[in-house]
Amino acid sequence: MMTLDDLNTASATDFVTLLDGTYEHSPWIAERAAAARPFASLAALKVALARVVREASIDEQLGLIRAHPELAGKAAVAGELTAESTNEQQKAGLTACTPEEFAKLQQLNADYNARFGFPFILAVRGPRGTGFTRAEIIATFERRLRAHPDVERAECLRQIHRIAEIRLNDKFGVTPERGQQLWDWAAALATHSDTDDFLTCTYATPAHTAVAEQLMTWMRDCGFDEVRRDAVGNVVGIYQGTGDQRLLTGSHYDTVRRAGRFDGRLGIFVPMLAVRELYRAGQRLPFGLEVVGFSEEECQRFPADFLSASSLVGHFDPAWLDTIDAAGTTLREAMQAAGLPGTVDAIAACKRDASRYLGFVEVHIEQGPVLDSLDLPLGIVTSINGSRRYTGEIVGLASHAGTTPMGQRRDAAAGVAELILFVEQRAAAVPDVVGTVGMLEVPSGSTNVIPGRCRFSLDLRATTDEARDALDADVRAKLTEICQRRGLSYALQPTLAANAAPSDPAWQSRWEAAVAALGLPIHRLPSGAGHDAMKLHELLPQAMLFVRGGNGGISHNPLESVTVDDAELAVETFRSLLLQIPHAH
Fold first, then answer.
1. What is the CATH number of domain 4-172?
2. pLDDT digits (tens, 9 = 90+) for 108-149
3. Contacts of 367 (CB under 8 A, 6+ apart)
4. Does domain 179-382+501-580 have CATH number 3.40.630.10?
5. Which leading EC class covers this enzyme (predicted)?
6. pTM of the entire structure?
7. Which residues contact 265 (CB under 8 A, 6 or more apart)?
8. pLDDT tens digits for 259-279?
9. Which fold has domain 386-498?
Protein backbone atom coordinates (compact mmCIF):
# COMPACT_ATOMS: atom_id res chain seq x y z
CA MET A 1 0.00 0.00 0.00
CA MET A 2 1.10 3.53 -0.74
CA THR A 3 1.77 6.04 2.06
CA LEU A 4 1.86 9.81 2.19
CA ASP A 5 5.53 9.59 3.06
CA ASP A 6 6.12 7.73 -0.22
CA LEU A 7 4.55 10.60 -2.14
CA ASN A 8 6.06 13.42 -0.12
CA THR A 9 9.63 12.13 -0.47
CA ALA A 10 9.46 10.85 -4.07
CA SER A 11 11.14 12.65 -6.94
CA ALA A 12 8.77 14.59 -9.18
CA THR A 13 8.95 11.82 -11.76
CA ASP A 14 8.29 9.09 -9.22
CA PHE A 15 5.45 11.11 -7.72
CA VAL A 16 3.70 11.06 -11.10
CA THR A 17 4.39 7.35 -11.50
CA LEU A 18 3.00 6.54 -8.07
CA LEU A 19 -0.25 8.36 -8.93
CA ASP A 20 -0.55 6.80 -12.37
CA GLY A 21 -4.13 5.77 -13.12
CA THR A 22 -5.68 8.10 -10.54
CA TYR A 23 -6.80 10.45 -13.30
CA GLU A 24 -7.46 8.72 -16.62
CA HIS A 25 -4.58 9.24 -19.12
CA SER A 26 -3.77 12.65 -17.58
CA PRO A 27 -0.31 12.68 -15.91
CA TRP A 28 -0.21 16.49 -16.12
CA ILE A 29 -2.44 16.71 -13.04
CA ALA A 30 0.05 14.90 -10.82
CA GLU A 31 2.95 16.79 -12.42
CA ARG A 32 1.47 20.13 -11.35
CA ALA A 33 0.29 18.93 -7.93
CA ALA A 34 3.79 17.76 -7.00
CA ALA A 35 4.78 21.36 -6.24
CA ALA A 36 2.21 21.52 -3.43
CA ARG A 37 4.05 18.92 -1.32
CA PRO A 38 4.30 17.97 1.45
CA PHE A 39 0.71 16.84 1.96
CA ALA A 40 -0.43 16.65 5.57
CA SER A 41 -3.19 14.15 4.80
CA LEU A 42 -4.78 12.13 2.03
CA ALA A 43 -7.62 14.67 2.03
CA ALA A 44 -5.09 17.44 1.38
CA LEU A 45 -3.71 15.49 -1.60
CA LYS A 46 -7.19 15.06 -3.04
CA VAL A 47 -7.91 18.79 -2.71
CA ALA A 48 -4.57 19.69 -4.33
CA LEU A 49 -5.23 17.45 -7.32
CA ALA A 50 -8.73 18.88 -7.75
CA ARG A 51 -7.35 22.42 -7.57
CA VAL A 52 -4.96 21.68 -10.46
CA VAL A 53 -7.93 20.67 -12.59
CA ARG A 54 -10.03 23.64 -11.51
CA GLU A 55 -7.21 26.05 -12.42
CA ALA A 56 -6.51 24.35 -15.77
CA SER A 57 -7.73 25.77 -19.08
CA ILE A 58 -11.13 24.74 -20.46
CA ASP A 59 -9.34 22.85 -23.26
CA GLU A 60 -7.33 20.90 -20.66
CA GLN A 61 -10.49 20.16 -18.69
CA LEU A 62 -12.27 18.95 -21.83
CA GLY A 63 -9.23 16.82 -22.66
CA LEU A 64 -9.46 15.20 -19.23
CA ILE A 65 -13.17 14.48 -19.70
CA ARG A 66 -12.60 13.04 -23.18
CA ALA A 67 -9.84 10.77 -21.83
CA HIS A 68 -12.57 8.79 -20.08
CA PRO A 69 -14.42 5.92 -21.76
CA GLU A 70 -18.15 5.77 -22.34
CA LEU A 71 -20.12 3.67 -19.88
CA ALA A 72 -20.74 0.27 -21.44
CA GLY A 73 -19.39 1.77 -24.65
CA LYS A 74 -17.35 0.37 -27.54
CA ALA A 75 -14.07 0.41 -25.60
CA ALA A 76 -15.67 -1.66 -22.82
CA VAL A 77 -17.01 -4.16 -25.33
CA ALA A 78 -13.62 -4.40 -27.06
CA GLY A 79 -11.77 -4.81 -23.75
CA GLU A 80 -9.77 -1.61 -24.27
CA LEU A 81 -10.41 0.08 -20.89
CA THR A 82 -7.75 0.81 -18.29
CA ALA A 83 -7.63 -1.67 -15.42
CA GLU A 84 -9.24 0.92 -13.12
CA SER A 85 -12.16 1.61 -15.48
CA THR A 86 -12.67 -2.09 -16.15
CA ASN A 87 -12.89 -2.74 -12.40
CA GLU A 88 -15.37 0.12 -11.85
CA GLN A 89 -17.67 -0.79 -14.74
CA GLN A 90 -17.66 -4.44 -13.66
CA LYS A 91 -18.54 -3.52 -10.06
CA ALA A 92 -21.47 -1.44 -11.32
CA GLY A 93 -22.72 -4.43 -13.27
CA LEU A 94 -22.25 -2.66 -16.60
CA THR A 95 -20.60 -5.76 -18.04
CA ALA A 96 -23.79 -7.71 -17.27
CA CYS A 97 -26.33 -5.44 -18.97
CA THR A 98 -29.42 -7.00 -20.50
CA PRO A 99 -29.73 -6.40 -24.25
CA GLU A 100 -32.37 -3.74 -23.50
CA GLU A 101 -30.15 -1.95 -20.97
CA PHE A 102 -27.17 -2.10 -23.31
CA ALA A 103 -29.22 -0.64 -26.16
CA LYS A 104 -30.51 2.09 -23.85
CA LEU A 105 -26.98 3.02 -22.75
CA GLN A 106 -25.76 3.09 -26.35
CA GLN A 107 -28.56 5.48 -27.29
CA LEU A 108 -27.86 7.67 -24.24
CA ASN A 109 -24.16 7.75 -25.07
CA ALA A 110 -24.95 8.86 -28.63
CA ASP A 111 -27.45 11.52 -27.51
CA TYR A 112 -25.11 12.82 -24.83
CA ASN A 113 -22.12 13.07 -27.18
CA ALA A 114 -24.24 14.84 -29.76
CA ARG A 115 -25.39 17.39 -27.16
CA PHE A 116 -22.16 18.01 -25.26
CA GLY A 117 -19.29 16.78 -27.40
CA PHE A 118 -17.73 14.71 -24.61
CA PRO A 119 -18.56 11.41 -22.88
CA PHE A 120 -20.89 11.10 -19.91
CA ILE A 121 -18.84 10.72 -16.71
CA LEU A 122 -20.24 9.14 -13.57
CA ALA A 123 -18.38 7.75 -10.57
CA VAL A 124 -20.28 4.50 -10.78
CA ARG A 125 -19.17 3.40 -7.32
CA GLY A 126 -21.18 6.37 -6.03
CA PRO A 127 -21.17 8.36 -2.79
CA ARG A 128 -21.30 5.19 -0.67
CA GLY A 129 -18.45 3.59 -2.63
CA THR A 130 -20.34 0.34 -3.16
CA GLY A 131 -21.84 1.25 -6.52
CA PHE A 132 -24.99 2.48 -8.22
CA THR A 133 -27.42 0.00 -9.71
CA ARG A 134 -27.77 -0.05 -13.50
CA ALA A 135 -31.23 1.50 -13.10
CA GLU A 136 -29.75 4.36 -11.03
CA ILE A 137 -27.01 4.88 -13.63
CA ILE A 138 -29.54 5.09 -16.45
CA ALA A 139 -31.78 7.48 -14.47
CA THR A 140 -28.79 9.75 -13.73
CA PHE A 141 -27.78 9.63 -17.39
CA GLU A 142 -31.28 10.71 -18.46
CA ARG A 143 -31.44 13.52 -15.88
CA ARG A 144 -28.05 14.99 -16.73
CA LEU A 145 -28.72 14.85 -20.46
CA ARG A 146 -31.05 17.83 -19.87
CA ALA A 147 -28.39 19.98 -18.14
CA HIS A 148 -26.81 23.17 -19.48
CA PRO A 149 -23.43 22.43 -21.13
CA ASP A 150 -21.44 24.55 -18.65
CA VAL A 151 -23.19 22.91 -15.70
CA GLU A 152 -22.61 19.46 -17.16
CA ARG A 153 -18.92 20.06 -17.85
CA ALA A 154 -18.45 21.09 -14.20
CA GLU A 155 -20.39 18.03 -13.02
CA CYS A 156 -18.25 15.73 -15.15
CA LEU A 157 -15.14 17.15 -13.50
CA ARG A 158 -16.61 16.62 -10.04
CA GLN A 159 -17.43 13.04 -10.96
CA ILE A 160 -13.84 12.59 -12.16
CA HIS A 161 -12.60 13.83 -8.78
CA ARG A 162 -14.87 11.31 -7.05
CA ILE A 163 -13.48 8.54 -9.26
CA ALA A 164 -9.95 9.70 -8.35
CA GLU A 165 -10.87 9.79 -4.65
CA ILE A 166 -12.04 6.19 -4.70
CA ARG A 167 -8.96 5.10 -6.64
CA LEU A 168 -6.71 6.88 -4.12
CA ASN A 169 -8.52 5.15 -1.26
CA ASP A 170 -7.74 1.85 -2.98
CA LYS A 171 -4.07 2.79 -3.46
CA PHE A 172 -3.73 3.82 0.19
CA GLY A 173 -5.81 0.96 1.57
CA VAL A 174 -8.17 3.47 3.22
CA THR A 175 -11.78 2.67 4.13
CA PRO A 176 -13.89 5.57 5.51
CA GLU A 177 -15.68 3.34 8.02
CA ARG A 178 -17.22 6.15 10.08
CA GLY A 179 -18.48 7.81 6.92
CA GLN A 180 -19.95 4.51 5.77
CA GLN A 181 -21.72 4.09 9.11
CA LEU A 182 -23.14 7.61 8.85
CA TRP A 183 -24.33 6.93 5.29
CA ASP A 184 -25.96 3.66 6.34
CA TRP A 185 -27.71 5.30 9.29
CA ALA A 186 -29.09 7.96 6.94
CA ALA A 187 -30.35 5.28 4.56
CA ALA A 188 -31.98 3.33 7.41
CA LEU A 189 -33.76 6.40 8.82
CA ALA A 190 -35.02 7.27 5.34
CA THR A 191 -37.16 4.11 5.39
CA HIS A 192 -39.43 5.87 7.91
CA SER A 193 -41.54 8.27 5.86
CA ASP A 194 -45.02 9.82 5.93
CA THR A 195 -45.39 8.82 2.27
CA ASP A 196 -44.22 5.87 0.21
CA ASP A 197 -42.89 7.69 -2.85
CA PHE A 198 -40.39 10.17 -1.34
CA LEU A 199 -38.85 10.82 2.07
CA THR A 200 -41.15 13.04 4.10
CA CYS A 201 -40.94 13.09 7.88
CA THR A 202 -43.02 15.84 9.46
CA TYR A 203 -43.55 16.60 13.13
CA ALA A 204 -45.31 14.08 15.40
CA THR A 205 -46.33 11.59 12.70
CA PRO A 206 -45.81 7.84 13.19
CA ALA A 207 -42.74 7.98 10.91
CA HIS A 208 -41.35 10.86 12.97
CA THR A 209 -41.79 8.90 16.20
CA ALA A 210 -40.18 5.83 14.61
CA VAL A 211 -37.12 7.94 13.69
CA ALA A 212 -36.88 9.18 17.28
CA GLU A 213 -37.04 5.63 18.62
CA GLN A 214 -34.34 4.47 16.21
CA LEU A 215 -32.06 7.37 17.12
CA MET A 216 -32.42 6.54 20.81
CA THR A 217 -31.54 2.88 20.13
CA TRP A 218 -28.44 3.87 18.21
CA MET A 219 -27.41 6.38 20.89
CA ARG A 220 -27.56 3.67 23.52
CA ASP A 221 -25.51 1.41 21.26
CA CYS A 222 -22.92 4.18 20.88
CA GLY A 223 -22.39 4.36 24.64
CA PHE A 224 -24.33 7.46 25.74
CA ASP A 225 -24.92 7.49 29.49
CA GLU A 226 -28.44 8.96 29.27
CA VAL A 227 -30.87 8.83 26.34
CA ARG A 228 -34.40 10.21 26.39
CA ARG A 229 -37.11 11.97 24.41
CA ASP A 230 -38.22 15.26 25.91
CA ALA A 231 -41.62 16.98 26.01
CA VAL A 232 -41.43 18.31 22.43
CA GLY A 233 -39.95 15.12 20.99
CA ASN A 234 -36.29 16.13 20.96
CA VAL A 235 -34.01 13.09 21.23
CA VAL A 236 -31.40 13.87 23.89
CA GLY A 237 -28.24 11.85 24.43
CA ILE A 238 -25.72 12.72 27.17
CA TYR A 239 -22.16 11.44 27.38
CA GLN A 240 -20.84 12.50 30.78
CA GLY A 241 -17.51 14.26 31.20
CA THR A 242 -15.27 14.70 34.19
CA GLY A 243 -16.49 18.29 34.67
CA ASP A 244 -19.98 19.67 35.29
CA GLN A 245 -20.36 21.72 32.12
CA ARG A 246 -21.44 20.38 28.75
CA LEU A 247 -21.05 21.20 25.10
CA LEU A 248 -24.40 21.20 23.31
CA THR A 249 -24.59 19.97 19.73
CA GLY A 250 -26.98 18.36 17.28
CA SER A 251 -29.42 19.17 14.49
CA HIS A 252 -32.95 18.26 13.39
CA TYR A 253 -34.41 14.92 12.33
CA ASP A 254 -37.65 16.12 10.72
CA THR A 255 -37.62 16.81 6.99
CA VAL A 256 -39.28 18.83 4.30
CA ARG A 257 -41.57 17.05 1.86
CA ARG A 258 -39.69 15.14 -0.87
CA ALA A 259 -36.54 15.50 1.20
CA GLY A 260 -32.95 14.35 1.06
CA ARG A 261 -31.42 12.08 3.67
CA PHE A 262 -28.75 14.32 5.16
CA ASP A 263 -30.30 17.74 5.89
CA GLY A 264 -30.29 17.95 9.69
CA ARG A 265 -29.64 14.28 10.37
CA LEU A 266 -25.96 14.56 9.38
CA GLY A 267 -25.48 16.86 12.39
CA ILE A 268 -26.88 14.23 14.76
CA PHE A 269 -24.87 11.33 13.35
CA VAL A 270 -21.48 13.09 13.45
CA PRO A 271 -21.41 13.63 17.25
CA MET A 272 -22.96 10.19 17.79
CA LEU A 273 -19.99 8.65 16.00
CA ALA A 274 -17.61 10.81 18.03
CA VAL A 275 -19.20 9.55 21.23
CA ARG A 276 -18.99 5.96 19.99
CA GLU A 277 -15.24 6.36 19.54
CA LEU A 278 -14.80 7.96 22.95
CA TYR A 279 -16.83 5.19 24.60
CA ARG A 280 -14.97 2.39 22.84
CA ALA A 281 -11.65 3.95 23.89
CA GLY A 282 -12.85 4.37 27.49
CA GLN A 283 -12.19 8.10 27.18
CA ARG A 284 -13.94 10.92 29.01
CA LEU A 285 -13.62 14.60 28.16
CA PRO A 286 -13.30 17.35 30.77
CA PHE A 287 -16.87 18.34 29.84
CA GLY A 288 -20.01 16.43 28.99
CA LEU A 289 -21.35 16.16 25.47
CA GLU A 290 -25.10 16.64 25.00
CA VAL A 291 -26.37 15.67 21.54
CA VAL A 292 -29.88 16.80 20.61
CA GLY A 293 -31.86 15.47 17.67
CA PHE A 294 -34.20 18.43 17.29
CA SER A 295 -37.70 17.21 16.52
CA GLU A 296 -38.87 20.14 14.39
CA GLU A 297 -37.01 22.72 12.34
CA GLU A 298 -38.63 22.67 8.90
CA CYS A 299 -42.04 24.16 9.86
CA GLN A 300 -43.85 21.76 7.51
CA ARG A 301 -46.87 20.60 9.48
CA PHE A 302 -47.60 23.39 11.96
CA PRO A 303 -46.93 27.16 11.69
CA ALA A 304 -44.38 27.22 14.52
CA ASP A 305 -40.85 28.23 13.55
CA PHE A 306 -38.06 26.33 15.37
CA LEU A 307 -40.61 24.72 17.65
CA SER A 308 -38.16 22.34 19.31
CA ALA A 309 -35.14 24.65 19.56
CA SER A 310 -37.43 27.35 20.97
CA SER A 311 -38.25 25.07 23.89
CA LEU A 312 -34.54 24.80 24.78
CA VAL A 313 -34.06 28.57 24.89
CA GLY A 314 -37.34 29.21 26.73
CA HIS A 315 -39.14 30.86 23.82
CA PHE A 316 -41.83 28.28 23.06
CA ASP A 317 -45.07 30.18 22.38
CA PRO A 318 -47.98 28.51 24.24
CA ALA A 319 -50.33 29.74 21.48
CA TRP A 320 -48.64 27.28 19.12
CA LEU A 321 -50.41 24.42 20.93
CA ASP A 322 -53.72 25.55 19.42
CA THR A 323 -52.46 25.93 15.84
CA ILE A 324 -53.77 23.34 13.39
CA ASP A 325 -52.35 21.34 10.52
CA ALA A 326 -53.98 20.82 7.11
CA ALA A 327 -56.18 18.05 8.53
CA GLY A 328 -57.47 20.24 11.38
CA THR A 329 -55.40 18.53 14.10
CA THR A 330 -54.04 20.87 16.76
CA LEU A 331 -50.39 20.77 17.74
CA ARG A 332 -51.44 19.72 21.24
CA GLU A 333 -53.44 16.78 19.86
CA ALA A 334 -50.59 15.76 17.57
CA MET A 335 -48.13 15.82 20.47
CA GLN A 336 -50.37 13.70 22.67
CA ALA A 337 -51.00 11.21 19.84
CA ALA A 338 -47.21 10.85 19.54
CA GLY A 339 -46.89 10.07 23.26
CA LEU A 340 -45.81 13.56 24.33
CA PRO A 341 -47.52 15.47 27.18
CA GLY A 342 -48.56 18.51 25.12
CA THR A 343 -48.65 20.80 28.16
CA VAL A 344 -47.09 24.20 28.70
CA ASP A 345 -45.49 23.13 31.99
CA ALA A 346 -43.79 20.07 30.52
CA ILE A 347 -42.45 22.09 27.58
CA ALA A 348 -41.21 24.87 29.88
CA ALA A 349 -39.09 22.28 31.70
CA CYS A 350 -37.06 21.77 28.50
CA LYS A 351 -35.33 25.15 28.91
CA ARG A 352 -31.57 24.91 29.37
CA ASP A 353 -29.52 26.83 31.92
CA ALA A 354 -26.88 28.69 29.90
CA SER A 355 -24.40 28.63 32.81
CA ARG A 356 -24.14 24.83 32.47
CA TYR A 357 -23.06 24.93 28.83
CA LEU A 358 -19.89 25.91 27.02
CA GLY A 359 -21.71 26.68 23.78
CA PHE A 360 -23.54 25.13 20.85
CA VAL A 361 -21.94 23.73 17.69
CA GLU A 362 -23.70 22.26 14.67
CA VAL A 363 -22.53 20.24 11.68
CA HIS A 364 -24.74 20.57 8.62
CA ILE A 365 -24.77 19.80 4.92
CA GLU A 366 -24.14 23.09 3.10
CA GLN A 367 -27.42 23.03 1.12
CA GLY A 368 -25.78 25.10 -1.58
CA PRO A 369 -23.25 24.92 -4.42
CA VAL A 370 -20.27 26.84 -3.01
CA LEU A 371 -18.14 24.05 -1.52
CA ASP A 372 -18.99 21.67 -4.36
CA SER A 373 -17.92 24.24 -6.96
CA LEU A 374 -14.62 24.82 -5.11
CA ASP A 375 -13.93 21.08 -4.68
CA LEU A 376 -13.72 21.55 -0.91
CA PRO A 377 -15.20 19.02 1.52
CA LEU A 378 -15.66 21.39 4.49
CA GLY A 379 -16.44 25.04 5.12
CA ILE A 380 -16.64 27.33 8.16
CA VAL A 381 -19.87 29.26 8.69
CA THR A 382 -19.35 32.93 9.53
CA SER A 383 -22.98 33.87 10.10
CA ILE A 384 -26.48 32.53 9.60
CA ASN A 385 -28.39 35.02 7.49
CA GLY A 386 -31.09 37.15 8.99
CA SER A 387 -34.25 37.26 6.92
CA ARG A 388 -37.51 39.03 6.30
CA ARG A 389 -40.33 37.34 4.44
CA TYR A 390 -43.59 38.67 3.09
CA THR A 391 -46.60 37.67 1.09
CA GLY A 392 -47.82 40.47 -1.13
CA GLU A 393 -50.36 41.43 -3.74
CA ILE A 394 -50.40 44.15 -6.36
CA VAL A 395 -53.82 45.25 -7.59
CA GLY A 396 -54.38 46.93 -10.95
CA LEU A 397 -57.25 46.66 -13.41
CA ALA A 398 -58.22 43.57 -15.36
CA SER A 399 -59.13 44.68 -18.88
CA HIS A 400 -59.16 43.42 -22.44
CA ALA A 401 -55.72 42.48 -23.75
CA GLY A 402 -56.59 43.45 -27.32
CA THR A 403 -58.38 46.77 -26.83
CA THR A 404 -56.43 48.44 -24.01
CA PRO A 405 -53.51 50.55 -25.36
CA MET A 406 -50.11 49.84 -23.84
CA GLY A 407 -49.89 53.30 -22.31
CA GLN A 408 -53.24 52.99 -20.54
CA ARG A 409 -52.83 49.68 -18.81
CA ARG A 410 -52.69 48.96 -15.09
CA ASP A 411 -50.98 45.59 -15.28
CA ALA A 412 -50.45 44.06 -11.83
CA ALA A 413 -48.19 41.26 -13.12
CA ALA A 414 -45.94 43.72 -14.96
CA GLY A 415 -45.57 45.62 -11.69
CA VAL A 416 -44.47 42.48 -9.85
CA ALA A 417 -42.15 41.60 -12.74
CA GLU A 418 -40.43 44.95 -12.37
CA LEU A 419 -40.12 44.38 -8.62
CA ILE A 420 -38.57 40.94 -9.21
CA LEU A 421 -35.86 42.41 -11.42
CA PHE A 422 -35.15 45.13 -8.86
CA VAL A 423 -34.84 42.56 -6.05
CA GLU A 424 -32.39 40.57 -8.18
CA GLN A 425 -30.26 43.60 -9.08
CA ARG A 426 -30.30 45.18 -5.60
CA ALA A 427 -29.38 41.94 -3.81
CA ALA A 428 -26.63 41.15 -6.30
CA ALA A 429 -25.02 44.54 -5.68
CA VAL A 430 -24.01 43.67 -2.10
CA PRO A 431 -21.91 40.65 -1.05
CA ASP A 432 -23.72 37.90 0.85
CA VAL A 433 -27.16 39.46 0.31
CA VAL A 434 -29.90 37.50 -1.45
CA GLY A 435 -33.47 38.22 -2.48
CA THR A 436 -36.05 35.87 -3.97
CA VAL A 437 -39.60 36.00 -5.27
CA GLY A 438 -40.40 32.31 -5.07
CA MET A 439 -44.17 32.32 -5.59
CA LEU A 440 -46.08 34.16 -8.28
CA GLU A 441 -49.78 33.89 -9.06
CA VAL A 442 -52.30 35.71 -11.24
CA PRO A 443 -55.69 34.74 -9.75
CA SER A 444 -58.25 33.85 -12.41
CA GLY A 445 -55.74 34.76 -15.10
CA SER A 446 -56.55 34.42 -18.78
CA THR A 447 -54.48 34.66 -21.96
CA ASN A 448 -56.52 37.60 -23.27
CA VAL A 449 -56.95 39.54 -20.04
CA ILE A 450 -54.47 42.05 -18.57
CA PRO A 451 -53.70 40.83 -15.03
CA GLY A 452 -55.71 42.84 -12.53
CA ARG A 453 -54.13 41.17 -9.51
CA CYS A 454 -50.82 39.43 -8.90
CA ARG A 455 -49.81 37.70 -5.70
CA PHE A 456 -46.19 37.10 -4.79
CA SER A 457 -43.83 36.10 -2.02
CA LEU A 458 -40.72 37.96 -0.97
CA ASP A 459 -37.70 36.48 0.82
CA LEU A 460 -34.85 38.84 1.78
CA ARG A 461 -31.70 37.61 3.55
CA ALA A 462 -28.30 38.95 4.60
CA THR A 463 -25.45 38.06 6.95
CA THR A 464 -26.11 41.10 9.14
CA ASP A 465 -29.33 42.67 10.33
CA GLU A 466 -28.14 46.02 8.97
CA ALA A 467 -27.66 44.69 5.44
CA ARG A 468 -30.97 42.84 5.63
CA ASP A 469 -32.84 45.92 6.80
CA ALA A 470 -31.25 48.12 4.12
CA LEU A 471 -32.34 45.65 1.45
CA ASP A 472 -35.79 45.46 2.99
CA ALA A 473 -36.18 49.25 3.02
CA ASP A 474 -35.01 49.63 -0.58
CA VAL A 475 -37.32 46.90 -1.87
CA ARG A 476 -40.35 48.33 -0.09
CA ALA A 477 -39.53 51.82 -1.36
CA LYS A 478 -39.22 50.46 -4.89
CA LEU A 479 -42.55 48.66 -4.56
CA THR A 480 -44.19 51.94 -3.57
CA GLU A 481 -42.55 53.80 -6.46
CA ILE A 482 -43.53 51.14 -9.03
CA CYS A 483 -47.16 51.17 -7.93
CA GLN A 484 -47.39 54.95 -7.91
CA ARG A 485 -45.89 55.22 -11.40
CA ARG A 486 -48.06 52.44 -12.86
CA GLY A 487 -51.32 53.40 -11.15
CA LEU A 488 -51.40 50.29 -8.98
CA SER A 489 -52.00 49.57 -5.30
CA TYR A 490 -50.43 46.92 -3.11
CA ALA A 491 -50.62 45.07 0.19
CA LEU A 492 -47.61 43.51 1.92
CA GLN A 493 -47.98 41.11 4.84
CA PRO A 494 -44.90 40.18 6.95
CA THR A 495 -44.67 36.42 7.59
CA LEU A 496 -41.22 36.07 9.18
CA ALA A 497 -38.52 38.26 10.70
CA ALA A 498 -35.41 36.44 11.88
CA ASN A 499 -32.25 38.12 13.10
CA ALA A 500 -28.83 37.17 11.79
CA ALA A 501 -26.76 34.86 13.97
CA PRO A 502 -23.05 35.65 13.59
CA SER A 503 -20.75 32.83 14.64
CA ASP A 504 -19.02 33.21 17.97
CA PRO A 505 -15.37 34.12 17.16
CA ALA A 506 -13.84 31.64 19.62
CA TRP A 507 -15.95 28.72 18.43
CA GLN A 508 -15.48 29.64 14.79
CA SER A 509 -11.70 29.66 15.40
CA ARG A 510 -11.92 26.16 16.89
CA TRP A 511 -13.69 24.88 13.80
CA GLU A 512 -11.02 26.53 11.65
CA ALA A 513 -8.21 24.94 13.64
CA ALA A 514 -9.90 21.54 13.38
CA VAL A 515 -10.18 21.84 9.58
CA ALA A 516 -6.58 23.07 9.29
CA ALA A 517 -5.42 20.08 11.36
CA LEU A 518 -6.58 17.87 8.48
CA GLY A 519 -4.36 19.81 6.09
CA LEU A 520 -7.40 21.30 4.37
CA PRO A 521 -7.83 24.90 3.19
CA ILE A 522 -10.05 27.07 5.36
CA HIS A 523 -13.00 28.45 3.44
CA ARG A 524 -15.41 30.76 5.25
CA LEU A 525 -18.95 31.30 4.02
CA PRO A 526 -22.31 32.48 5.34
CA SER A 527 -25.33 30.25 5.70
CA GLY A 528 -28.24 31.44 3.63
CA ALA A 529 -30.49 28.80 5.18
CA GLY A 530 -31.89 28.90 8.69
CA HIS A 531 -30.70 26.36 11.26
CA ASP A 532 -31.33 25.31 14.86
CA ALA A 533 -28.09 27.14 15.68
CA MET A 534 -29.71 30.51 14.95
CA LYS A 535 -32.24 29.81 17.69
CA LEU A 536 -29.63 28.49 20.15
CA HIS A 537 -27.71 31.71 19.38
CA GLU A 538 -30.23 33.45 21.64
CA LEU A 539 -28.91 31.46 24.60
CA LEU A 540 -25.36 30.30 23.84
CA PRO A 541 -22.33 31.17 21.71
CA GLN A 542 -22.60 29.10 18.52
CA ALA A 543 -20.68 28.20 15.38
CA MET A 544 -21.28 25.81 12.50
CA LEU A 545 -19.34 23.53 10.17
CA PHE A 546 -20.63 22.93 6.64
CA VAL A 547 -20.11 19.66 4.75
CA ARG A 548 -20.11 19.65 0.96
CA GLY A 549 -23.25 18.36 -0.74
CA GLY A 550 -23.08 16.46 -4.01
CA ASN A 551 -25.07 16.95 -7.21
CA GLY A 552 -24.21 20.64 -7.30
CA GLY A 553 -25.00 21.09 -3.61
CA ILE A 554 -28.73 20.49 -4.06
CA SER A 555 -30.79 20.09 -0.89
CA HIS A 556 -34.45 19.78 0.09
CA ASN A 557 -34.49 17.29 -2.76
CA PRO A 558 -34.10 13.50 -3.09
CA LEU A 559 -30.85 14.15 -5.01
CA GLU A 560 -29.23 15.56 -1.86
CA SER A 561 -26.05 13.59 -1.22
CA VAL A 562 -22.87 13.39 0.83
CA THR A 563 -19.93 11.08 0.12
CA VAL A 564 -18.70 8.70 2.79
CA ASP A 565 -15.29 10.37 2.52
CA ASP A 566 -16.66 13.83 3.30
CA ALA A 567 -18.71 12.38 6.15
CA GLU A 568 -15.53 10.76 7.51
CA LEU A 569 -13.78 14.15 7.42
CA ALA A 570 -16.71 15.76 9.27
CA VAL A 571 -16.43 13.20 12.09
CA GLU A 572 -12.66 13.67 12.32
CA THR A 573 -13.06 17.46 12.38
CA PHE A 574 -15.65 17.22 15.16
CA ARG A 575 -13.30 14.99 17.19
CA SER A 576 -10.49 17.49 16.68
CA LEU A 577 -12.78 20.30 17.87
CA LEU A 578 -13.57 18.39 21.08
CA LEU A 579 -9.91 17.93 21.90
CA GLN A 580 -9.21 21.68 21.56
CA ILE A 581 -11.75 22.84 24.11
CA PRO A 582 -10.24 24.20 27.36
CA HIS A 583 -11.12 22.44 30.59
CA ALA A 584 -14.59 23.28 31.76
CA HIS A 585 -15.03 25.03 35.05
1. 1.10.3330.10
2. 999 999 999 999 999 999 999 999 998 999 999 999 999 999
3. 263, 528, 529, 549, 553, 555, 556
4. yes
5. lyase
6. 0.92
7. 185, 186, 189, 251, 252, 253, 293
8. 999 999 999 999 999 999 999
9. Alpha-Beta Plaits (3.30.70)
